[in-house]
Design goal:
The structure is a single chain. This protein has four helices and four strands. It is α+β, with helices and mostly antiparallel strands. It has helices at residues 12-23, 40-50, 54-57, 77-86; strands at 4-7, 29-32, 95-98, 101-104. A four-stranded mixed β-sheet has the order 2-1-3-4. The protein has a single domain, classed as Glutaredoxin.
């Protein structure tokens, strides 16, 4: 079973999620998305698999969210995805994808739903 985690090693929730995956006996593909951000198509696919909007995936804390005015409802789904591609720190983490689906694993225990 292939498991992929979009991971930020500086994030405690992301580290905990990775540890939970490894405790299940799996060794996931680890994508440090700040260094290797997903493509537009990949990010759109993950959003579809998670069943959430781009707005729901936006991270606010420690990002340029406020400076960019991203709380304004004028931004379309495509525009918000564009901001996340330009500023990957805006992508909330961790995202985990398995053959059972994809989840934004906040809290980390959400990963158990798809392991």
């Amino acid at each position: 079973m292939t498991i992929t985690i979009y991971h930020n090693p500086a994030c405690g929730t992301s580290r905990n999620t990775l540890a939970m995956i490894r405790q299940s006996g799996a060794e996931p593909v680890v994508v440090e998305y700040l260094k290797n951000p997903p493509t537009r198509a990949r990010l759109a696919e993950l959003l579809r698999k998670m069943g959430i909007s781009a707005r729901e995936l936006l991270r606010q804390r420690g990002t340029p969210y406020t400076e960019l005015g991203l709380a304004d409802p004028k931004w379309s789904e495509e525009e918000l995805i564009g901001f996340m591609l330009k500023h990957p720190i805006l992508i909330e983490r961790p995202i985990v994808e398995t053959p059972k689906g994809a989840r934004l694993c906040r809290p980390a225990e959400k990963v158990l739903e798809i392991l």
